[in-house]
Amino acid sequence: MTRVVSETSVATSPVMRGMWFGLGWAAVALGAIGVVVPGLPTTGFMVAAAACFARCSPRFEQWVLHLPGVGKAVGDYRAGLGMPRQAKVVALAMMTVAVAVSAVVVEPLGVKFVIVATGIVGFWYLVRRVPTAPDPG
Questions:
Q1: Which of the two residues, 25 and 129, has the higher pLDDT score?
Q2: What is the distance between the alpha carbons of residues 130 and 73, in angstroms, rounded to a whole number?
Q3: Residue 133, beta-bridge partner list
Q4: In the list 27, 32, 71, 119, which could disulfide-bond 67, CB 3.0-4.6 Å?
Q5: What does the alpha-carbon distance between residue 105 and residue 26 come to, in Å, rounded to a whole number?
Q6: What per-residue confidence (pLDDT) applies to 35?
Q7: Number of H helices and number of E strands within the chain?
Q8: CA distance linking residue 8 with residue 57, whole number of Å
Q9: pTM score, two decimals?
């Protein structure tokens, strides 16, 4: 899967390129942490990383799109294909468990509210806004 970035979408200012590059690597770092931390979305951060790199470094954008395990999902999402039904069900279940556990463990009521509200928004977004692709095979 290769994606050609038009020259107009790449930032020309060195400051903007540096900003996009830094944001891209921050997203890669959060995505890498998400590999081992339940409830932290690896693919979402890698989609963000690819979007940032598209604005500053087509080489690193291609690197993200070819990463084993996540590259195909990033490319499919960016192409509007969404995510497979089974992956969506697993993601929703993990989100629900992570939000429920976090809301029980955290003490201040205001923080509990923010956790649950954020979880509801994330759940809604995944169900309503992310297309569901048929499962492979």
A1: 25
A2: 12
A3: 84
A4: 71
A5: 27
A6: 86
A7: 6, 2
A8: 13
A9: 0.73
